[in-house]
Amino acid sequence: MSSIKIAGIATVVLLAAGLVAMVRHGRVQPAETSTFTFEPETMKDFKKPEAAELKKKLSSEQFAVTQQCGTEPAFRNAYWDNHKPGIYVDVVSGEPLFSSLDKFDSGTGWPSFTQPVKGADVVEKKDSALGMLRTEVRSKMADSHLGHVFDDGPGEKGLRYCINSAALKFIPLEEMDQAGYGQLLEPFVKAGLIKPSKHETAILAGGCFWGMEEIIRKIPGVIKTTVGYSGGTTANPTYEEVCTGGTGHAEAIQVEFDSARLSYETLLDYFFRMHNPTTLNRQHNDVGTQYRSAIFYSSEAQKQTAETVKARWDKSGKFSRPITTEITAATKFYSAEEYHQKYLVKNPGGYTCHVLRD
């Protein structure tokens, strides 16, 4: 990146934010901001935010229900009449709680379920706050107040979990895999609501991996993205080592996707739309072999598809110069340091030079 751009970005950040910005190899790294995302794979490490943080994240009604044991109005809430397939998770932590497969119309005006989703560990507590003995239901990890459970429901156990919509976030069936809840899809497969997913992995490089991941992770059919380093010779390279250009690695994205919903060819079409594949070892102001355009294939079928897609884009007239994207066999992929993962989710407004063209 040019010294003029480095100085300009740094000045803007320092003056506008009043904070010290860190420059890493030509990229201004904004101060880390608090952001809440649903990350089921790291649920075991979840720590409940302080009340002040929760007030920023939650609506006033969500805070009143989950933190102050409030109750939302019957028939005037988000999910009492929701019939879409999917799961309901804790609005605070993302912990999976209930499934649409167990939801029924109780006539009460609140979402009602016969049981928690398999594997969910909701906490039940005795509640006599209203002068009657009831059983309160709370989430285990975030200790959110959810509602109550009664013994007047249908099914073998005869239970009715009467839950506040404000305590829940609904994840539609078609978004579950991408959101990280793929392990809960099997009952929906058995119910004939979705076909079994076919997981495939692609490794792509096209400049700074921050911006690439932010686009790729949102593509329908993408299940998981990991930023890292590929195509080099040094074992276990660090970010600083890769940035010297001496390891031979490219900043890359490992993409796990459902090939039943997103073909490898379509994924590569997205790839060519999100970066400039005609600038050798460069994306905008990021210069060096670590910023090269590359497709690292893991099978002969991927290689053939990559060559076909590259040739089609080369002849498309979309670019004024020949495409320089290398197509090479995948070698060991090394995951980048944790602070790089979903960097632009953690740092909204951070540096990126990628846009998805039409």
Short description:
With about 350 residues, the protein is α+β, with helices and mostly antiparallel strands. The chain is about 25% helix and about 25% strand. It is built from ten helices and 19 strands.
Strand content: 15-25%
In terms of quaternary structure, what is this? single chain
For the biggest sheet, the summary is:
6 strands, antiparallel
Helix content: 10-25%
Computed CA radius of gyration, to the nearest angstrom: 24 Å
How many distinct beta strands? Answer: 19
Tally of alpha and pi helices = 10
Q: List low-confidence stretches.
A: 1-37
Structural topology:
Layout: H1 3-17, E1 22-24, E2 27-29, H2 51-57, H3 60-68, E3 86-90, E4 96-99, E5 103-104, E6 112-113, E7 123-127, E8 134-138, E9 145-150, E10 160-163, E11 168-172, H4 173-179, H5 186-190, E12 199-206, H6 209-216, E13 222-230, H7 239-243, E14 250-258, H8 264-274, E15 282-283, E16 286-287, E17 293-297, H9 300-314, E18 326-329, E19 334-335, H10 343-346
